[in-house]
Amino acid sequence: MNKAVFPGSFDPPTLGHLNIIERACSIFDEIDVVVAVNPEKHYLFSADERVEMLTELTKKFANVKIHVWNSLIVDYARINGASILLRGIRNATDFAYEFDLSLINHSLNNKIDTIFIPCEQKYVLIKSSTIKELAKFGGDISQMVPDLVAEKLREKLKN
Ligand code: ADP
User: Fold this and answer.
1) Is 50 a pocket residue for ligand 1 (Cβ < 6 Å)?
2) Which of 14, 20, 31 most suits a substitution to test ligand 1, by most atoms within 8 Å of the C-beta?
3) Å from CA of 87 to ligand 1 middle
4) Atom in ligand 1 nearest the alpha carbon of residue 86
5) What Å distances lie between residue 109 and 7, 61, 72, 140, CA to CA?
6) How far is CA 111 from the centre of its chain?
7) Which CATH superfamily, name and number, covers 3-124?
C-alpha cells in the first residue's frame, strides 16, 4: 500500500492544510495525518482538540486517518509502514526549512523520503500562527479556516 504521513502541529487546522490533504488523497492509498505533541512547544489547542477538529474536517475522505505522536516522525512512519512524509510548501522560506528537515529525516532513516506539495495560490498567506493572532484581535479569518475552526477559536479565546 502506498501510504503517506502528513505531520504537523495543526494548531489549528486551516484551509491550507485541508487542501494539501485533499490533493494527497488522490495520490496516495492512505494518508495518516499525525498531530505533533512536542513538550517544548506551546499549543493553543490540546492534542485531543486538534484530533477532534481534524477528524470532523476529514471525515469525507475515506483514506485519511488522524493520529497523535510525541516522538520522531520517522519512527512513526517506520512503525506504521509508511515510507513517505508529506509536507506543504507555501514559499521559499518554507522550502528552505522543509528541505533541511527532509535531509535530517532521511539521514535518520534512509528508507523514508519527503514529498513536497506546493500550496495553491489562494492559500499562500494562510498560517496557523497568523490565524491565532488575527482571531485574538477580532480579525476576519473566515477565508482561512473552516467554520468549525473559527467557532472553536472564538470559544477558546473567550475563556
Ligand atoms: P509544523 O509545526 O510541523 O510546521 P504546521 O501545522 O504549521 O506544523 O504545518 C504542517 C504542514 O502543513 C507543513 O508542511 C506546512 O508547510 C504545511 N502548511 C501549513 N500551512 C499551509 C498552507 N497554507 N498551505 C499548504 N501547506 C501548509
Assistant:
1) no
2) 20
3) 7
4) 14
5) 16, 29, 11, 42
6) 22
7) HUPs (3.40.50.620)
Q: What is the DSSP letter of 119?
A: P
Distance from the alpha carbon of residue 14 to the mean position of ligand 1, in angstroms: 9
Grid cell for residue 129? 500562527
Provide the residue-wise pLDDT of the chain in tens; the chain has 159 residues. 799 999 999 999 999 999 999 999 999 999 999 999 998 999 999 999 999 999 999 999 999 999 999 999 999 999 999 999 999 999 999 999 999 999 999 999 999 999 999 999 999 999 999 999 999 999 999 999 999 999 999 999 987
- How crowded is the C-beta side of 1, counted as CA atoms within 13 Å? 11
Domain range list for the chain: 3-124
On whether the CB atoms of residues 16 and 47 are closer than 8 A, the answer is: no
What pTM was computed for the model? 0.96
Dist. CA 63 → ligand 1 center (Å): 20
Ligand 1 neighbourhood includes 20 CB (under 6 angstroms) = yes
Residues in the chain: 159
